[in-house]
Specification:
By secondary structure, the chain is mainly alpha-helical. The chain is 65% helix and 6% strand.
């Protein structure tokens, strides 16, 4: 429950803003960011973006 409260307090950012700075923020190229964020519609917290990027990178190519 505490994690949920922390998440609601996290600052949300537009996908476009995070994409613009994805190299500095996450250390990935824009195409990696785009792949990881597929399906994300609205603003997202940086921590959630990191989780999505790491999950996407772990999947690997099929």
């Amino acid at each position: 429950m505490a994690a949920k409260k922390e998440e609601t307090k996290a600052r949300l950012y537009k996908i476009e803003t995070l994409r613009k700075y994805c190299g500095e923020l996450f250390g990935v190229q824009p195409y990696v960011f785009d792949g990881a964020m597929t399906g994300v519609k609205g603003p997202i917290a940086k921590a959630e973006a990191v989780r999505k990027i790491n999950d996407w990178l772990r999947k690997g190519a099929k």
